[in-house]
Amino acid sequence: MSTELATPAPAVASGLGGGGRSGWGVGSIRPVLIILALLLIAVGIRQPDFYDPPVLLAFLKRAAPLIILAAGQYFVIVAGDFDLSVGSLVTAEVVIAARLIDGDPAATWPVIALLLGFGLLIGLVNGLVTTLLQVPSFITTLGMYLVLVGAVYTWTGGSPRGALSEEFRMFGRRGIDGVPVLGQLPYAVLVLSGVAVLAVLAMRSDFGKVLLAVGDNPRAARVTGARTARVRTIAFLASGLLAAVAAILLGGFGGVSFQVGQGLEFTAITAVVLGGVVLGGGRGSVAGAMLGALTLQTLLTLLNLLGVSGALSSAVQGLIILAAVAVGTLRRRT
Amino acid sequence: MQPDSDQPLLRMRGVGKAFFGVRVLDDVDLDLHPGQVHALVGENGAGKSTLMKIASGVYQPDAGTLELSGKPVTLPHPRAAQAAGIGIIHQEFNLLPERTVAENVFLGREPLRRGLVDRRAMHARTAELLAGVGETAIAPQTRVGRLGVAQQQVVEIVKALALDARVLIMDEPTASLAEHEVELLYNLVRRLQQRGIGILYVSHRLTEVFDLSGRITVLKDGRRVTTLDTAEATPDTLVRHMVGRELSHYFPERAAPGSAGAARLQLAAAGNGRLRPVDLELRSGEVLGIGGLQGSGRSALARAVFGIDGFRTGQMLLDGVPVRVRSPRQAVRAGIAYVTEDRKGEGLALSQSVLDNALLAQRAVQPRWFARAARTTTVRELLDAVEVHAAGTGQEIRYLSGGNQQKVILARWLAMKPRVLLFDEPTRGIDVGAKAAIHDLIRRLADDGAAVLMISSELPELIGMSDRIVVMRDGAIAGELPAGASEEAVMGLATGAATSTEVPA
Asked: What ipTM does the predicted assembly reach?
């Protein structure tokens, strides 16, 4: 019908090129890249062998769970929500794994499938309660956090039981040996790479663009034909699934305890915010969120190298959240 | 009919106000006497609410003076207006639903006894005030949330009286009332009048204006057209004063008479909570204008067709096929597009780029995992065709002018090749040049075979663009007018001054 309209006017008339978005705008990844570079230089000075490939890979291996969690948290935050349940979900997953596997190697793969399913289920419940019952996600996931903590304690009778199999722990601990130059290529880094590629592809897809629009202006997205409830629920599903993946890695190189996931929800949110993602939704990239997590891990490593007490690290996270949000608000105002 | 004492309660002289260089009120005079009901009438955007806000201390006038009982006053703040004895009853009430009537009436000024709220005194005084306006059915202890809308309005009025208001401004007081409640309001207004209170009654419903007021001031485009005694006025003269303007703007040529194609959208007794059953036919190739006052159901009609607040009863047909549209998504899939009047609130994702906004409908309705180059190319061409001016398609859309934002929304829908387009105030807040461009686009869409429904408060636009005009009032169709109908005819139907559909065009 619109043959006449579809005839392109000379492009010069409107001068519509590509580009136009400043690399320094709110939601850009440039600031976090600079902070990361400075921190990496500082770590390198303090620990000269940090750039040896095996050391660097070991560092990435340690950072992998947090980066994966940050990617999950990103989907939820950019849609305008929060997921406070991921820390206790990680704990629950590890405790469930230990009890169900109980040292039996044959149980490894079925249990991994079950863990991923459990993560999806928790994400689904979070998403449905938030969108269909219209409970603010802050409250939904805080409730879910408490439910999971209580349920895990009750189920285990106060102390985690059972043990993980060696096959299960391999994801967090081992890698492909004998790779030239790198030495061992940890499985955790492979999993991380897979997650990163999929997350970036998802955000480049139409789903990702609609997710951003929903976080930016849910009413406009709905009136343009988006299924906002479904899109937000999918973000929670991604967060739950990625929390399960992070739990599998953490269970590998950590032990089985109630502390394994403690505080991870806030660390993940800090990382996302540090990566230039705006709380409230609609701005920021998943690459930024993951780089934010890497930056945070580097900062914690540096503090550790400098001999700063571990107790201070939560204070540092708090300051980062406050500073990042304040700077974001100030910049948007100008 | 009303005793006018010599000294006006409220006297406004030469009042003017501009926002960002746009003059919305210019040299307006108004006298309000004790015991007088003075109606303030005019089209949307005539300056009624600005004048009201100046009288109640919300805005400061740029020019002119205010006098209360002969003394010059300035009202730097709504509180100053309250203290001076000017009360205002807004369309939306400022009541706390979880508090009692008495607590609302005395909010922030509770009578104290030994440092504690003296509830007994508060209840007694509230009962007294309620009795004073003839309202004995409301107990001061009742929670406001339990009261009906009409009773809440009484509480609002009593709240103003508790502050010794001598001037009461009422903004569209019947807008939220059911028909049988209007009579109660009439009685209340007459009682207040007997007590010597001056009432500034803002309404576009002419029936009420003639029933209640003693004097009428007509505003148009921010200026006072005339002030006259109600006894001397007729609905016809009033409507003429409210509109009376020349068609100056150029509009694209209308469709040739009889050239409209087959019926694209048909409504048969379609209604919902806001719309009485509506029968309507929208043909391919025509621009159907929908006129009416704000809140007359114009937007509710478009939103129902688009599935935002869908129809509950009746039937809707698209190209002769019955359809049920329960969400905007279903509407989009059925080939309907909706350009909202609330561009920022409902049209755009402001932090996203021009391109992302233009692609949003396709991405939302036909999502793909991998970007389609063809799609992007088409949308870029459409953005060029509608002549969007931006630094680039990657620029955040918040930085574009209203006209350019609207063109992006148009490009978004054109990419969906809709059969039916619904425009709600398509040129609101848009500069003159972009306006003409959007008018041309709307006409071209109709020429290409789309069925266009266009809501507009701007009468020149409504009349200049439409092949047919349907006027709505109180959630129903008040009548239909042919192309080129007069502004008086449209306003007559919209205000209820003319009740039949056989209005001379």
From this structure: 0.86
